Each structure stands twice: as C-alpha cells, then as structure tokens.
C-alpha cells in the first residue's frame, strides 16, 4: 500500500460532518479516546452509499438525496490527525455545506472516490450487525498507531 502524501488538515475549530461509522460514540472513543461534541446535521445532494465488501459507507454525490449525520466539533489537532490517518486512501477530505437545525454552514467531510454499491448504507444495520467488532478493530488500530509512533 502506498503512503498517501500528507495533506493540509482543517484547523481544530472546524467541524467534521460524519455520516457513517464515525457517528457512533463507541467508534470515536476507540479512535480518539473520547466523544467530542456532536450535533445532528444533514447534507443535501449526497448519499451514504454501501461499499462492496465493506461494513462502512462512502459519501457520494446524489442530486435528490439527503444524508443524515452529525457535526463533530471541538476536535483538536491530534484528533484530526488520528481520524485522517484512519480513513482509507479512497476518501478525500472535502468542505461541504451542511444544515444543523435551522443553521446553514460549512463543515469538512470524507467523500468517497472509488466504486460504490447501488444501495444506501444503513446505520441501523451497521449498529446491530457490525458495531462491536468494528469498534474493537478500531481500538486495536489505535493501539498499533500509538506503538508505532512511540518507536519512530
């Protein structure tokens, strides 16, 4: 696997729109050791698509769709670095317009750049069928990341 070139990350005060596995507090806790402030939000013109052979979704353009998710705020520089390292190379970090309640604004999100399934991803199906195992894999990934950073 080739290493992705370092990209410029958002500043700590920028919100992150999450629509897939990062919407679950157990996953966030496993990855960054805490659950940041979360606010329900919507993204118009995109859908959380199922990905072939994956438990997690990819956000793609879909004119007549709305994706429900959350805005994560109060992310620190270290949080952004961990989350960015965690995401697959097929994700691009993209600014998008979001609606949070009656407020419109912008947030960053991870959009998918590779093949998707025709079906939408289901947060409910993920929660009942994959969440405990997925969160344990996230925790193991984080432990490996910490061990690697301590040896470098």
Topology:
Blueprint: E1 16-18, H1 25-32, E2 37-50, E3 57-73, H2 77-86, E4 91-100, E5 103-112, H3 123-129, H4 131-151
Antiparallel strand pairs: 1-3, 2-3, 4-5
Helix pairs in contact: 1-4
Protein name: Putative gamma-glutamylcyclotransferase
Organism: Nocardia tengchongensis
Keywords: Transferase
Secondary-structure element order, N to C = EHEEHEEHH
In the predicted model, the low-confidence regions spanning at least 5 consecutive residues are none
CATH superfamily membership: Gamma-glutamyl cyclotransferase-like
Shape: globular
Can you walk through the features of this model?
With 152 residues, this protein is of the alpha+beta class. It has a single domain, classed as Roll (Hypothetical upf0131 protein ytfp), CATH 3.10.490.10. The chain is 30% helix and 36% strand. The protein has helices at residues 25-32, 77-86, 123-129, 131-151, and strands spanning 16-18, 37-50, 57-73, 91-100, 103-112. Strand 2 and strand 3 (57-73) form a beta hairpin. Helix 1 packs parallel to helix 4 (131-151). The longest helix has 21 residues, at 131-151.
